[in-house]
């Protein structure tokens, strides 16, 4: 790598996203996308936006989408922040924590972008161990810190925290920002957005990539009281003042407003997850209780690396992570019933 750049760049350990192979005859259960895709109304809105004026810059305030999201919670549009995927919303959140005097806390097994962002932006962090059952224990966060970030449900375990625990955490850290990353919350978790009115230190981040089926568009948002959102706007405007493009804005508004599509398809994912969990247990897997659109499971005797390789050779992609307690686990996204049947047939063949 060129010596002209900062030494920090040389020492980065970037987050590596799951592979996106050409989609011929593959059951793609490796990146937690929505197997049903977005609402047809979103596709219609995007087509219409294509034929409108792409010549013009998009609305730098993403007003229509902020208003639609805010209205669902009885909030003001200025209490919503929009970004290019929740990854970007999180990036701006981390940037806003730059040079904090105390470390940022997050679980030792969690979304691996968190330590990556900390290294990139030079933010000190401390990892808090999950308990023996791989759960987040809120009491373990009673320590001095600059801020806290937790996914709920956690990733890649899929285990959700009750909203009462989130509220305890927020109440016990009145001088710290508590960020709750709710990328997977619509599949059985409890959202903390209703608590935003009550707590000035709570920021809740969500995405259109999972329950809204729009991972390809890249759109996510944060909800919080005005001073928190204003800071994120300031960071964003110092970086790129257009949060999302015209097509994304149109598609996301339509997807948000199609409540019926959203409810029907998240229910399908939840039902398939239940069936898959039972079938995996019957094949000898230990399956963690999931509130997400994936399951995290380990076979009682067969190593995770072998299983992943053998599944791959049968055209089934799942995700594995390295790390002391999780290297034998497979993270399996919930696909259609047919995709899950294909996975189960392949496992039956392997085991
Ligand atoms: N948070 C968590 C916990 C995730 O797993 C993901 C998806 N990889 C994201 C945020 C980012 O999702 P997106 O950028 O697609 O909104």
Description of the molecule:
Homodimer. It comes from Rhizobium lusitanum. The protein has 351 residues and is an alpha/beta fold. It is 37% helix and 14% strand. It has helices at residues 7-11, 40-51, 63-72, 85-95, 113-121, 163-172, 226-237, 246-257, 259-282, 304-313, 337-350; strands spanning 27-28, 80-83, 104-107, 125-128, 147-151, 177-181, 202-207, 220-223, 285-287, 294-299, 316-317, 329-333. The strands form 3 sheets. Strands 2-8-7-6-5-3-4 form a 7-stranded mixed sheet, sandwiched between helices. A 3-stranded antiparallel sheet has the order 9-10-12, covered by helices on one side. Bound molecules: 4'-deoxy-4'-aminopyridoxal-5'-phosphate. The site of 4'-deoxy-4'-aminopyridoxal-5'-phosphate has 12 residues, from α4.
Question: What is the compact description of this entry?
Answer:
The protein is α/β, with parallel strands linked by helices and 351 residues long. It is 37% helix and 14% strand.
List the helices and strands and how they pair.
Blueprint: H1 7-11, E1 27-28, H2 40-51, H3 63-72, E2 80-83, H4 85-95, E3 104-107, H5 113-121, E4 125-128, E5 147-151, H6 163-172, E6 177-181, E7 202-207, E8 220-223, H7 226-237, H8 246-257, H9 259-282, E9 285-287, E10 294-299, H10 304-313, E11 316-317, E12 329-333, H11 337-350
Parallel strand pairs: 1-11, 3-4, 3-5, 5-6, 6-7
Antiparallel strand pairs: 2-8, 7-8, 9-10, 10-12
Main beta-sheet strand count, sense and barrel state: 7 strands, mixed
Report the average pLDDT across residues: 95
Q: Number of helical runs?
A: 11
Over all CA atoms, what is the radius of gyration?
Answer: 20 Å
Indicate the low-confidence ranges by residue numbers: none
Q: Roughly how much helix do the residues carry, as a percent range?
A: 25-40%
Identify the bound ligands. Answer: 4'-deoxy-4'-aminopyridoxal-5'-phosphate
Give the DSSP E fraction (strand runs of 2 or more residues): 5-15%
Judging from the principal axes of the Cα atoms, what is the shape?
globular
Distance between the termini: 44 Å
Q: Let me know the number of strands.
A: 12
Strand order in the largest sheet: 2-8-7-6-5-3-4
H/E element string? HEHHEHEHEEHEEEHHHEEHEEH
Structural class: alpha/beta
């Amino acid at each position: 790598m060129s010596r002209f750049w900062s030494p920090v760049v040389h020492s980065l350990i970037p987050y590596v996203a799951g592979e996106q192979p050409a989609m011929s005859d593959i059951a793609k259960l490796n990146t937690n996308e929505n197997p049903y895709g977005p609402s047809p109304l979103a596709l219609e809105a995007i087509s219409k936006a294509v034929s409108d004026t792409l010549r013009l810059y998009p609305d730098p305030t993403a007003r229509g989408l902020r208003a639609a999201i805010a209205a669902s919670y009885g909030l003001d549009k200025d209490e919503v922040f929009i970004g290019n995927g929740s990854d970007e919303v999180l990036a701006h959140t981390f940037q806003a924590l730059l040079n904090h005097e105390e470390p940022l806390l997050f679980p030792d097994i969690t979304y691996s972008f968190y330590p990556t962002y900390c290294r990139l932006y030079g933010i000190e962090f401390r990892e808090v161990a999950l308990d023996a059952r791989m759960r987040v224990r809120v009491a373990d966060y009673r320590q001095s810190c600059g801020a806290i970030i937790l996914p709920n449900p956690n990733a890649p375990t899929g285990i959700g925290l009750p909203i009462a625990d989130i509220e305890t955490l927020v109440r016990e850290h009145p001088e710290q920002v508590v960020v709750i990353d709710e990328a997977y919350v619509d599949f059985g978790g409890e959202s903390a957005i209703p608590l935003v009115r009550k707590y000035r230190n709570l920021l809740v981040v969500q995405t259109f990539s999972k329950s809204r089926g729009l991972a390809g568009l890249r759109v996510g948002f944060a909800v919080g009281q005005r001073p928190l959102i204003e800071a994120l706007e300031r960071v964003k405007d110092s970086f790129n003042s257009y949060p999302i493009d015209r097509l994304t804005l149109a598609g996301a508004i339509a997807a948000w407003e199609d409540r019926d599509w959203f409810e029907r398809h998240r229910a399908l994912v939840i039902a398939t997850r239940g069936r898959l969990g039972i079938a995996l247990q019957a094949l000898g897997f230990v399956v963690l209780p999931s509130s997400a659109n994936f399951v995290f499971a380990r076979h009682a005797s067969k190593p995770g690396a072998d299983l992943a390789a053998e599944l791959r050779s049968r055209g089934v992609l799942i995700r594995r992570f390295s790390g002391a307690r999780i290297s034998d686990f497979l993270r399996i996204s919930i696909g259609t019933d047919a995709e899950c049947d294909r996975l189960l047939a392949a496992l039956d063949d392997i085991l």
